[in-house]
Amino acid sequence: MQTIHTVTGTCRPDELGRTLVHEHLLIGYPGWQMDALAPRFERGEALRRAVDALQQLRSHGVKTFLDPCPMDLGRDVEFMAEVAQASGMRIICTTGAYFEEQGLTYTFRNLPLDDIAAIYEKEITEGIGETGIKAGLIKIATGDHHVSDYERKLLVAAARAAKRCDVPLISHTQEGTCAMEQIEILAAEGVPAHRLLVGHTDGVDDPAYHRGIVDRGAYIGFDRLGITVIQPDEVRVKNIAALVQAGKGRHVCLSHDSNCGAWLGRPIFAPGQPLDPALIPQMMPHWTPSHLFERVIPMMREAGIPEDAIAAMTDENPARWFAGEPA
Ligand SMILES: [Zn+2]
Predict the structure, then answer these.
(1) Phi, psi of 204, deg, nearest 5
(2) Fewer Cβ in 10 A, N or C end of the chain?
(3) What is the domain-level CATH number for residue 75?
(4) Ligand 1 mean position, distance from CA 315 (Å)
(5) Cα of 60 to ligand 1 centre, how many Å?
(6) Residue 3: which pLDDT band, with cuts at 50, 70 and 90?
(7) How far is the CA of 22 from the centre of ligand 1 (A)?
């Protein structure tokens, strides 16, 4: 049985339990330190907020919280470890970088592919920086309807490191696009689709697209629950129900892509539009990591999704993905 690195130790796939596969504790877009007009980052306050949110998740039975923050989006694994210790939540972090347009690309654009693979491998086997905290898996990311040369290089590096370290991969898709390209690039390096959890395609209301992803064998994240500015949750639930009806519920993993500690700098969700983080709860009142348990699961029941299919999505599918088993 394979060992998974968490920010505070190790566990086995069968110990993961109820898992949110894509949530965050801190996010800062590259260059956030330059935004002197942003609210000051209050670490203690962020820590308290994150611990509160994770304790609330524990009351919903959540045992594992995966924070796939890429290296260049304010990843702070010591903060994660503090939150894990204070909340009793198991937290898993990633190595890997964000997509070209929104990431911090200069260094990785100029490093050889083999060096990037070796860096990912080092963060998985030896640890991140001097912390000794090891990444449990690899984050990959691609752009809107287009995979750039930079992104392709990082995907190939990720595939090679994933094979050497026997870890899964989790992805960011911009606007939900390029899932098939991600699957193809990994497959060309000998990484089977079931090693990948494709993220954010719940932003696309296209059942045939979802079906294509799972028919290739990948796991699929309906992982932006509560982000109603992208997609109403009713549409997400309808598309989950369609996958369950097609016998593909074992591919589905659920999450919110929420940020429950703090924003570093001001979030920029759209070009030229820095956002006061204090306004986000008004924009999307249900964008919290407990939303699934408070509102979405009842919606899923109402849509006729059977109880065992819901339990598979929250409690079993993430474990199978981590264990390297096809859905
Ligand atoms: Zn995310």
Answers:
(1) -105, 125
(2) N
(3) 3.20.20.140
(4) 20
(5) 21
(6) very high
(7) 6
Is pTM beyond 0.85? Reply is yes
DSSP for 199-235, written as a single string:
-SGGGS--HHHHHHHHHTT-EEEE--TT-TTT--HHH
pLDDT tens-digit map of 66-79 = 999 999 999 999 99
Backbone angles phi, psi at 246, to 5 degrees: -85, 5
In the chain, DSSP assigns E strands to: 4-6, 9-11, 18-20, 24-28, 62-67, 90-95, 137-142, 169-173, 196-198, 219-222, 252-254, 259-264, 268-270, 273-274
Q: How many residues does the chain have?
A: 327
Distance of CA 112 from the midpoint of ligand 1 (Å): 26
Contact 30, 73 (CB under 8 A): yes
Q: How far does the centroid of ligand 1 lie from the alpha carbon of residue 47, in Å? A: 19
Q: Please say whether the beta carbons of 207 and 220 come within 8 A.
A: no
The tens digit of pLDDT for each residue in 197-230 reads 999 999 999 999 999 999 999 999 999 999 999 9
- Cα separation, 320 vs 326, whole angstroms: 7
70 in Cβ contact with 96 (< 8 Å): yes
Is the separation of the CB atoms in 171 and 139 below 8 Å? yes
Number of separate domains in the chain: 1
Q: How far is the CA of 257 from the centre of ligand 1 (A)?
A: 5
